[in-house]
Specification:
By secondary structure, the protein is α/β, with parallel strands linked by helices. It contains 14 helices and 24 strands. Bound molecules: uridine-diphosphate-2(N-acetylglucosaminyl) butyric acid.
């Protein structure tokens, strides 16, 4: 078992380069199934979720060649399977998005039902009802979703009851090869969906309205090859900015885009950070001051992201003042709170709200990471705590943060990986 040993007390200072976005890389890798031509992708991050996705695509016989460091070529010209097995879907829910391209191109898909996870029950009913509206037949047998559309998918109006990111991506991919026009209503607007749509457009898809609540797709007979660079990871960007805020530091993050972080940046400014944004970098300076407490309410993009909630909980736990953090996207995304309390945080929970009384300092402790963003929040807490913390189950962080300890070390953090 690996763990991260963090000794707190150092301000984060210096420059760090942000990697390609996990939540854009995963659907774009899956979109390779929509064409028999080559897809050349750049800025692919080294993450366990990306490795799992490559394993899954290779299982379906997609040919994947790695180049240099962060580029690869995919070619799905000899797909021999349409099944996403339990062992992969269990570790990475994004695998359910293989349903759409397999159905759209081959008329069938068999994907393990992902089940619940630590941040909530996370059903996929909206994905399936959208595909059914497009003519697919779906049923569940022995833990697997079986979908078929022998005559091909047909364009339809898919109106989501609530915003769903991967649901929108699934229907968007399905619609590219469907017969006729598909209109997605109440679509999620996350920048990663726009990145996927832009890649699909390069492949020849006819898409309009990506990034708004209504997306229109005119199906085409075939998609071709393309070359695409994955957008920077806005949650990794936000995580480094949050860590610098908590540690009263001064950092510049490079290869990022402040446009996707408006809500996060405005909350960091309220916490006392001085922030300068240029085209592809953001500089944050706390001028050595303790952060001020800020209230947060998570909601779909462009509002405050649920994927930054835990990191702000870490800031608030040592901030000057009291705060309220409300989680409205996932029903159970407060698993980090009990671990933060072991470090001395003063937090109470009432349904989907956490009430935080900022304490002057935390103390290092043995803690367990329960999910990806919870791990990030525990690293931030450990960076400000007095003494040494051990963060166990570090595999969660490796799912979504590339070279986390190297990047943190370069900013001056005292963090090392230990293998038991
Ligand atoms: N939901 C349903 N039915 C559905 C689909 C979703 O009830 O058919 C519910 C979910 O249970 C949740 C809400 O709708 O309460 C929103 O879920 P959504 O479908 O938007 O989440 P997702 O697509 O499974 C993606 C990201 C998550 C991120 C959420 C919200 C990827 C691969 N994952 O998940 O990222 O938190 O959107 O922004 O894009 C992470 O990176 O740590 C992460 C969890």
């Amino acid at each position: 078992m690996q763990k991260l040993e963090v000794t707190g007390g150092k301000k984060l200072e210096g420059e760090v380069t942000i990697s390609g976005a996990k939540n854009s890389s995963l659907p774009i890798l899956i979109s390779s199934l929509l064409t028999d031509q080559k897809l050349v992708l750049h800025n692919i991050p080294h993450l366990n979720d990306v490795s799992s996705m490559i394993t899954l695509l290779r299982e379906l016989n997609v040919d994947i060649t790695m180049h240099e460091n962060i580029s690869l070529t995919t070619q799905a010209d000899n797909v021999t399977s349409w099944t996403a097995p339990y062992d992969i879907v269990r570790t990475m829910r994004a695998s359910i998005m293989v349903i759409a391209p397999c159905l759209a191109r081959f008329g069938k898909a068999i994907v393990s039902l992902p089940g619940g996870c630590l941040i909530g029950s996370r059903p996929i009913d909206m994905h399936l009802s959208g595909l059914e509206a497009m003519g697919a037949k779906c049923f569940i047998k022995e833990g697997y979703i079986h979908c078929s559309a022998p005559k091909g998918l047909k364009g339809a109006t898919v109106s989501f009851d609530n915003k769903t990111v991967t649901g929108t991506e699934n229907i968007l991919m399905a619609a590219t090869l469907a017969k006729g026009t598909t209109t997605i209503k109440n679509a999620a607007c996350e920048p990663e969906i726009v990145d996927l749509a832009n890649c699909l457009i390069k492949m020849g898809a006819q898409i309009q309205g990506q990034g708004t609540e209504t997306i229109q797709v005119d199906g085409v007979k075939k998609l071709g090859g393309a070359e695409h660079t994955i957008m920077p990871d806005r949650i990794e960007s936000g995580t480094f900015l949050a860590a610098a805020t908590a540690t009263r530091g001064h950092i510049r993050i490079k290869n990022t885009n402040h446009k996707y972080l408006k809500n996060v940046i405005s909350k960091l400014k309220l916490a006392g950070a001085e922030i300068t944004c240029k085209e592809d970098w953001i500089e944050l300076d706390m001028k050595g001051k303790r952060p001020k407490a800020v209230n947060i309410k998570t909601a779909p993009y462009p509002k405050f992201p649920t994927d930054m909630q835990a990191q702000f909980m870490a800031i608030n736990s040592i901030a000057d003042g009291n705060s309220k953090v409300q989680e409205t996207v996932f029903e159970n995304r407060f698993m980090h709170i009990d671990e933060m309390k072991r470090m001395g945080a003063d937090i109470t929970i009432d349904n989907n709200c956490a009430f935080i009384k900022g304490v002057k300092s935390l103390s290092g402790a043995e803690v367990i990471a329960s999910d990806l963003r919870a791990s990030a929040s525990l690293i931030i807490s450990a960076l400000v705590a007095e003494g040494t913390s051990n963060i166990n189950r570090v595999y969660h962080i490796d799912r979504g943060y590339e070279f986390i300890e190297e990047k943190m070390q370069r900013l001056g953090a005292n963090i090392v990986r230990k293998i038991d």
